[in-house]
From TrEMBL:
GO terms for molecular function: S-adenosylmethionine-dependent methyltransferase activity. SUPFAM superfamilies: S-adenosyl-L-methionine-dependent methyltransferases. It comes from Kingdonia uniflora. Residues 155-201 form the Methyltransferase type domain. PANTHER family: OS04G0481300 PROTEIN (PTHR43036:SF2), OSJNBB0011N17.9 PROTEIN (PTHR43036). This is Methyltransferase type 11 domain-containing protein. It comes from the Eukaryota.
Amino acid sequence: MITFHPNTKLWYPYILTQPQSFKAQNLSIKTAITASSLSSNQHESSKTTSSSSAGNIKRLVLTQQGRTKMNSAPDREFYAYPRLVTHVDNGFISMLTGLYRKRLEPGWEVLDLMSSWVSHLPSEIEYKRVVGHGLNTQELAKNQRLDYFFVKDLNQDQELEMESCSFDAVLCTVSVQYLQQPEKVFAEVFRVLKPGGIFIVSFSNRLFYEKAISAWRDGTGYSRVQLVVQYFQCVEGFTQPETIRKLSGDGKRMAEQSPFAWITRFLGCYLG
């Protein structure tokens, strides 16, 4: 059972990765990846071709070892103390807010998973409702964009106690690296998304190392992007994830000449 807490504010009726530093080339990379659920027409079409398979988990992405954490203590204990700081830099926040501005429509219903005291939503846009989820009540209560919030450990219980097809967008900001059952969480996200709804996941090279899963800790910037793409692909019904990769800083020219550049172009990423 979970409890929803109304926030004190008035009621209003893609995977993004932060710059990742490579010691050899001193370059930074920003990546955006988004995926949508089936549209209404696609939902109707899928009924005739696949007996309600949309939302099913097609395969597991992680091995049992890949799900382990160095710190196995309950996450509720680790996050008991509020951290009222931003875990990413201003450039990342600006890019993320710009992405939300382009992809999230006014009047939408938004679920902010694994949220904190700030959601990085554009301040000038009003949404019908923004529901937040996290592990620290004090942090969530400080978030002025949330109409309601609830506290739940998704590593213990992945079920979202919400109606199906109830949100236009779901966000997961710089926290996907801590999910031990990402396949189940992504399937639940698909369930609560409205037809054609969008799921935007963001992450950074910054992390609580002891709380990140082994598959993330042992990975590279490239492999982490591919890991999240596989999370989307393992759930029946998500569209092909859209990946946008942006380089900035002094390493941009070097990056364009590096082997990594042709890999990102091959993946359909956008550099600039």
